[in-house]
Amino acid sequence: MMGQGPQKPGEHQLKRAWVFLKPLVGRYAWRLVFGFLCLAVVDLLQLWIPRVMKHAVDGVSTGEDSGWLAVRVAQIVVLALIIAVLRYFWRYFLLGFSRLLEKDIRRTMLAHVLTLDRTALHGRSPGDILALSGNDLASVQLAAGMGLVAFVDAIFMSLAALAFMAALHGTLTAVAVAPLPFLALATRSLSGRLHARFVKVQEKFSELTECARTTLTSIRLFKAYNQEESQTARFDALGRAYVHHNLRAAIVEGTLFPFAGLVSNASVLLVLYFGGLLTMHQALTAGDFVAFMAYLHLLTWPMMAFGWVANLFQRGLTSLQRIQELLADRAALEDPPRPVRLPTAPFTLQLHGCTFAYPAMETPALQDCSVTLTPGITGLVGPTGAGKSTLCAILTRLYPVPRGAYTVNGCDVNDLGIADLRSLMAYVPQEGVLFSDTVAANIAFGKPDATLEEIQAVARAAVIHDEIVAMASGYETRLGEKGVRLSGGQRQRIALARALLLDRPILIIDDALSAVDTETEQRILKELAKRCQGKTCLIISHRIAQLADAHRLLVMDNGRIVDSGSHHDLLQRNPFYRTIHQHQTRMSCAR
């Protein structure tokens, strides 16, 4: 489940980040080696140019000829060309490494999210996960790319430049670095505040992303209820909060970076003053002074970079902690250490006094529920909120159950592999989830290698074939997001066709024909009767008359099965069943 939020970065957080990144970094270690090797050579060549400039200036001072000066200029040009080539290669290797790292973390996140069940995802919104895979991961990539490059470059360039400067004049070098401790103190004191404010920025971005996602996926609902202005106002309020926290972080950022510039400029002023005095008293040649100033100019970038790098690393570490919190979430459902072999068909599913409550809910959705599903078609009816959909979720292993509460052919489901058990089942949920793809691809979702003939056969069984053929491009017609271009009944029948294509021994249909007219539903049920011979099939429907021919009917209320039997038996002895049947019969006659 979700943690308490990223804490202030410390040794523990850094170690945790390194443990996570180490195998990913090791995968591309050769890129880092070649990249940093090219970077080191570039830095050394940049540091060599001031030495060439020193000799050129000293040569002019001593009256060397123009040919000698031309040689020095040519040397600088050649060095600049080599630097340009090597700079391309270090960018290719090092920035490429950060993109590969980003790709691997994103793939790890997706693979992990797909292992989580509904219980584990209960405390996270889709917008939060989208923000983690977008904005947060981008911060990690930037820290691992330009942040890491700038950090290593700043360290190497600083040490090398100081060594070259000390070789020219040790005392002047000490004067130049005198302001640096102030930069270190400022970076240390501001890093904690940066971290805390970046946490808030990322949290607000998650909320903003979730609001945008909700708006886009529910736009028809907002229009139907005339809520466009209120939703726009809510999005605007979240946007203002996001900007507010960004500005608070920018205040700290805006303090650190200019302060680094102030420190570097202080070093320049000190060197200009004391170096000028040394040159005037001939303790330093003009060439040495020019070279020293050039080295100081090269040292200015690392001093400025430390503030920028601290900023990038704080953002990256904050985002990585948020990503690690997601990866630390664990599914409540886990495979047993040694899964037993699956039983063979036909299958009998049994719940034995199963009680289940959703997270953060006090009232159980299932209360001491016992049911046996045998081969053949079993119908399930009950009032809204009786627990019918929860029963489907338990049967398909979307939630955990205690040992002994659910068996398949006598085998406890806790001893079976989750994927193995689900491979026996085809499930049609109420909402009829569709993807922004072709009709054929949506039907073949669970069996991508299905032929067009197979797809058409199950579409006919779901009584949707003729309507698909009438579409602009037939089975190649692209559906909008969530099948927005289709009616509710069309979405449900395409989802049913998808399940039928799998041809599995257990079929569970959760009121997935509620948007289909009575005549079409009757045709579908007749097709199901043909296809479900020898299979275990559970059909939930609010239309009792359509389930009259089922092998067995179950009546559910208050989270438990309260009665079972044939249609005729239930009409005789169950008041609820009889009342609903009479009401639906009157409604049908009224039409």
UniProtKB/TrEMBL annotation:
Gene3D superfamilies: ABC transporter type 1, transmembrane domain, P-loop containing nucleotide triphosphate hydrolases. The keyword Transferase does not apply. Residues 33-315 form the ABC transmembrane type-1 domain. The chain crosses the membrane at residues 28-49, 69-90, 142-166, 172-190, 256-277, 289-313. Its main location: membrane. The lineage of its organism: Bacteria, Pseudomonadati, Thermodesulfobacteriota, Syntrophobacteria, Syntrophobacterales. Keywords: ATP-binding, Cell membrane, Membrane, Nucleotide-binding, Transmembrane, Transmembrane helix, Transport. GO terms for molecular function: ABC-type oligopeptide transporter activity; ATP binding; ATP hydrolysis activity. This is ATP-binding cassette subfamily B protein. It is found in: Cell membrane. It is a multi-pass membrane protein. GO terms for cellular component: plasma membrane. It comes from the Bacteria. The keyword Hydrolase does not apply. Pfam families: ABC_membrane (PF00664), ABC_tran (PF00005). Residues 349-583 form the ABC transporter domain.
